[in-house]
Predict the 3D structure of the following.
Amino acid sequence: MVSISTDHDIHAWKGALKKENMPWVNISNLPGDDKLINKTYNITAIPAIFLLDAQNKIVMPNDYRISVLKENIEKMLTKN
């Protein structure tokens, strides 16, 4: 799991990292253009959830349904 922040404020992002203590990789586009990430990946709400395969190809673009996530993970596991 990887979190990509689209925060506008680096201090707020660092504060959230410290407060939430998320045990996975957290990266940020700061001080970049947050609109570019949102536009590129069609992110309209946070959090956005994507499933990537071993080649970093998006196999499930921004779908919150657990059933769809499970189905896609099962497909990925049976391919290997």
Remarks:
- Residues 2-79 form a domain with the Glutaredoxin fold (CATH 3.40.30.10).
